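Annex B. Sample input.
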Amino acid sequence: MRSRSILLASALLGGCAANGPITPPQPPGPLLSLLSADDYPASALRAEEQGTVFFTLEVGPDGRVARCTVTSSSGSAALDSATCRMMTARARFRPALDRRNRPVAGTFRSRITWRITG
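Annex B, continued. Sample output.
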């Protein structure tokens, strides 16, 4: 059986609008630590589906993910769905801050590459 791996490349691309946050949301550590090879969807593994999912997370003032949107599909519905499901359930952030240093909603953009190796 082939092994599976997940590669994560984070890219903080959140912008700061005039009335929006000054400081975008920040994960407390690498998002990769939230995932393991066991998270690879079984159906995607059987079908040998691989790819990179680009996504945007809407992070609430409490640091929890309120919404995940796939902005560029991996080509696999299973990988896209797993990415948002796991980021929504597992990711926690230091919230965005406004000009008065108060927690506010913000966005975080990143990508995950799912790869089958071996």
